[in-house]
């Protein structure tokens, strides 16, 4: 502008713009979403646990759930430096598996079966927790 219009000093109006969210809010939001992903992973792994190939039980969802948990914990480690905080997706996964083991209305059960599937819950917990525990252990000892 010409010198005739620009005689006053520039003023800031902080009330016209909203401040950008801080990094802490983004960190909490991402860790919350990772915890929700842990719950969804537990539900899907539990519902697909009694899958079969022909007449043979094939609980591949336990291994896929463990690998997914390892990926969630790995992602959480990129947003926090605390292994305890990074374990939140794993803890929500374990809590969801524990809640799904309770009987539902009408005594409906999710985990159960005959033969090998009687040990499906144990297999789900073992294969679901060992890979993320290895990721956390490797991070803590690095």
UniProtKB/TrEMBL annotation:
Asked if Secreted is a keyword of the record, the answer is no
Task: Specify where the region named Disordered lies, as residue ranges.
Answer: 1-20
**Organism, per UniProt?**
Mycolicibacterium gadium (Mycobacterium gadium)
Q: Which residues cross the membrane?
A: 28-50, 56-79, 86-103, 109-137
Q: Supply the alphabetized keyword list.
A: Membrane, Transmembrane, Transmembrane helix
Compositionally biased spans, kind Basic and acidic residues: 1-14
Question: Which named protein is this?
Answer: Facilitated glucose transporter
- Keyword Transmembrane recorded: yes
């Amino acid at each position: 502008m010409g010198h005739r219009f620009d005689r006053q000093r520039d003023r800031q109006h902080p009330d016209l713009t909203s401040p950008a969210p801080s990094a802490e809010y983004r960190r909490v939001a991402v860790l919350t979403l990772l915890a929700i992903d842990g719950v969804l992973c537990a539900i899907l792994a539990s519902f697909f646990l009694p899958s079969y190939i022909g007449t043979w039980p094939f609980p591949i969802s336990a291994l896929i759930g463990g690998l997914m948990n390892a990926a969630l914990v790995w992602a959480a480690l990129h947003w926090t430096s605390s292994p305890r905080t990074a374990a939140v997706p794993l803890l929500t996964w374990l809590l969801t598996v524990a809640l799904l083991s309770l009987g539902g209305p009408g005594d409906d059960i999710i985990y159960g079966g005959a033969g090998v599937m009687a040990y499906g819950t144990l297999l789900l917990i073992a294969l679901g927790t060992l890979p993320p525990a290895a990721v956390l252990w490797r991070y803590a000892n690095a």
